[in-house]
Fold this sequence. Notes:
This protein is α+β, with helices and mostly antiparallel strands.
Amino acid sequence: MNEQEVAHWLERALADLRLRVQVKAQPLQDSPGDYALVVMLNRPANAALNYEQLTAWFRKAVASRYPQVKRLALYSRPMGQQQADWKTQVRLGPGLTTEGTLQPDLSHYCFVLDRQLLTADLPQPSSVVRQAVLGFHGLTSGQKEEVLPLLPTLFRNPSAVSTVTLSVEASLWLEPLKSLSPYELRLLSIWLSRYCFSPSRTLADLDPAASGCKTGQAKRNYRAPQGGVALVLASFAGNLTVAAGLTLGLLFGMVFVLALAVFGTLEGGLSFGSFLLAVLLALAFNALVFFLSPWVMDWIQQSLYGTQWVSLGEIERRSPESAEVIERVCRQHKLKQPKLGLIPDQNPTAFTYGSLPNNARIVVSEGLFTYLEDEEVATVYAHELGHVIHWDFAVMTLASTLLQLLYLLYVYVRDRGSSEGRNRRGGKNLAFLALVAYLFYVAGSYLVLYLSRVREYFADYFAAETTGNPNALARALVKIAFGIVQEGEREQDEATRRRSTRLLEGMRALGIYDAKAAGTVGTAYRLASDPSQVGRVFLWDLFNPWAWWMELNSTHPLTGKRVRALATYAEQLDLPVEFDMASVVAQGKQLNRQQLYGSFLLDMLLLNAEWLGAILGMGLGIPALQAGSYGMFAGLVLAGASLGLLLKMPVMYPSLENPPALTVLKALSNPYTSPLRGLPMQLQGRVIGRGNPGYRLGADLKFQDETGMMFLRYASRFGPLGNFLFGARQAAGLIGKEGTVVGWFRRGVAPYLDLSRFQSRYGEVVTSHPPFGQAVQVALGLLGALLLMAFSPF
């Protein structure tokens, strides 16, 4: 066949000036005179093609024009790229038959460790996996025998598989599989193992018509037929307008009252001009930051995180429903399409930033598309768009500016009080005002945190109302915050969903999840078939006394509470609730109250032991202060703080001798864990990425075991400088390595592991030293205290 002639004919017949066609014809070894035709469609990056129609057209056109072509492989890629992003294979003739030939014995081929997967009821796989299995079924017995020995290598290291010695048809089937993602390869290993165990049953499972259930039918049962149905906000979610008005009003009032008090206290107001200058500078600086921050953040994202700015067409290729949601929301609200960013990291996250709705940016990581389904990704984008629609940027920026003014007032009054300390008439008043200003600042901080939590509830509400799919957002939140997801399957019907509901973690006030928690994100990658396991993950959020304290200091509500709000929206839409929060509450009532609350007050004191020690030192040092021995006073304060820190170290870091081998899911299911008491444990698995998605200098890591993923907090004995050097030089080299991690598990806003040691399967050892930094602080503090007290007369 003349390949150039075929290419020219196809371009003319397609009549699509956007496409450039490349063709390669290969003779079939087992059928002289017949050919396999490989067609590459090169298209503009923003071109959207209907591949189903194209496949049907090629099947008919090529078969009628070139009857000698029996096999057709179609590929498509954006112009200028090397790798195809779409592919399919088509049989154009009866081809070679397997009737009358001896079929290979497939029963002894199994590519998964858990043989229960061979007979378990599983939901439908993705279309790519289904086509691959059906393509394998269409191979002749000889061709199957060619590829079967190569499959274990394919699933472990696709790039190591060579198809040079294979027949054309076997090569056409195997070669495209080398470009599948690890997630798709895991799926394929399961379904090919099922096929080898029972071909007829597997083929029936892969045909939706055979089971009488159309693809996607059950998903519609778990979501409203259409979005836009009005919902009633969950009663505990608050009111965004009231929260914003209350926060801004109180902050304005604090600033105004405090400024009047300061003005009235200062004699003649001679130095008040410097304060006004500071206020004007703060306002000017915040206005500058407000309008320039999107471009500054763009630079940070690209330089430190490797963020790539992509088109809506690229998002559509990865998640068609997300593109539809973005277009619809922007059209309905007359909003300019946000700039879309993609971080090349498998740690799933999403966040929004900008100053005004029309210059908003929405950034997600690759992991969001890997671990979340199409409808779940769409709800995450809807959540981020909710922040844009609600003008969160402007409100939060104004609140933060007022908070900064309160702090400026505190600093100004404190410094004036110090300078006028000898003047008894004004000094005492200024000292009192400084205390009031600081208390206002602390209260204002909690008001801003409260406003931030309320806006998250409203963004969830917006997403549920816009998509009509609160269950998908609930799954997405749980995957990002906890990370529990069954490996390899997609839900299709209610029964399967209840057997295989999936659970998987997340810039602080910017993100879909609190990234103070982003530095402490832990995930569980596979949900046990017992739904109560899911409930035990939520128990900490709803019943542990540490939860309310952690949430009070967080920009985001606890995930369990957000899921509970989304459950109320599902009920309003008359949908089955994804997570039965009523059963979670019932489980919570059975928890051991003594174990939950018995040591909470003591632990709270221990958590702040260094501050309490410093206060105790102040009390003991009052006589020294009255005698003018300031060194003795400072030494007692420093000694108290150091001894307090020393007191809590053994509680935070108990012995790691013979730590129990746990899993991520088991650790997350413990409702009695705390941010103080470290739980010794070890995990088996591999390092999959940075803890902070895409951050090239980050020292923290993400680790995956057989049940999920866990955030690993690294601590160098050389402090922040050592962490920086480790992140810049060594962390990237650990990604992809398998081994064992040992450390202390904690749970705060989100779970994490204080890393002590990682040992790869090849013997490489990396050590981390979380207690070392505290030990150094204690030693230096006690030494400094002794020196101060030794050289201070009393």
